[in-house]
What does this fold into?
Amino acid sequence: MNHPIRSVALLGRPLVNFVFVIAASLGAWYALVTLTGVSELTTRLPQDVVGYLFTDEDAGQNRSEVLGALGQTILDAGIGFVAGLTAATLLATAMVMFGGVEAATMPMVMVLRTVPLVALAPVITLLFGNGFWCVAVMSGIVVLFPALVNIAFGLRSVTPQMRDVVTVYGGSSWDVLRRVAYPSALPSIFAAIRISVPGAITGALIAEYFTTTNSVGKAVNTSLALYQYDKLWSLIVVVTVVSVLGYLLAQLAETVVLTRYGQRAGRT
It folds into this structure.
């Protein structure tokens, strides 16, 4: 009998967060345009974007162009998200299990983190070509460092007492990792996922700006060069909405999983 109520409660917070983010973004948008005195030739308001996508005579074609570019960007970001998160999980596991791995890999990870992605773009393009894999790699690089730090922190949160319990019953280090460390690290893993979703999209957009043709990043570059400001603002809006939705879906998945494993107690 409590399952429907519990389901509504689980959905409630992400929905409230989504409404709040959208309302705050709209308020900031109007304030930016109206209070800063920027030129009306280059700026658009929310109603202009709605008109471009839904009510203008060419709205159908406009939506097709915007959504086509958005689909490519979501694909690029998705590949980068999976690749970056998988690499971060494997590296974090190796760092926890083998002490020398961290000393060997962290300098390279720090280089990827500190060097601007724009500066790395030419090198990555030379290695992977000017296409899909280049974008996926650049998106994955953005995901790698924050995910690695969060997941490694979570895996190291195993207390000596928890480790001793597994060891007393004949468990190995792998058993400690599988039965204790990963379940204990779930909050940190989901924190990494939430951070990685918008990060993957950001990385994909930066890469697309230089490489992929049919994508939001390239379309933004082209629209800016051709003074197509209605399209430019529409692209920015849809990719922002997708980024927020991705973050909230990750938050919802976190709530469901941590509730299932009894780890929501005391969490805000």
The mean pLDDT is 85.
